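Changelog-adjacent note: as of this version, every example in the card shows the full chain rather than a window. The one below runs 197 residues end to end.
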Amino acid sequence: MALDPNCLFCKIINGDIPAQIVFRNENVVAFNDIAPQAPTHVLIVPTLHVENAAGLAKMSPTLTADLFVAAGEIAATNGLTGYRTVFNTGAEAGQSVFHAHLHLLGWAWTGLAPRLKIDLALMERTLITVPTAIPMVALIGPHDDNLRAVEAAFPSVNITVRGNEITLRGPHIDCLALENLFGELMVVIRSGNVLSC
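Full-length structure tokens:
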């Protein structure tokens, strides 16, 4: 499919709308997300207009693979030895621009990001396993003060703490933001700093 003149990402591909382009070849354009959910958050888009990942995979498995190859090259350029790639397909899954795009998310503190298990069927439940080296009281506060502050900032997410696990239930985008926040808080604690509200 050709580019769609009404599509935001097609306009970025054509250079009609400015973006921080970090990678470009004949099949792929990648640019920094304007609302990053991680220290490295790049959107990788095919240079053909296709509505979503399912349509892209059906139309061209090769072009779909090119997105992942670009993700690997971008991650290496950013010094990431570990990273996450995500397609949101459909509004219910959080897709807001209907031009297939792969999210590349990475943390500069490779090895310190939280270990995550995501219930992909629901896309609204996130389990964060806190490393045993981080005392939970340091993360959530001596009287759950830090936890209460986070709950007040994200009223749409139900947060449950059990042992060294934090379960988030709520809208996908809010859970993703909280997952990143807890990851950053763990880095602060590991560096010897104390959290306070």
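Structural remarks: Strands lie at 21-24, 28-32, 40-46, 84-87, 102-106, 115-118, 125-129, 158-162, 165-169.
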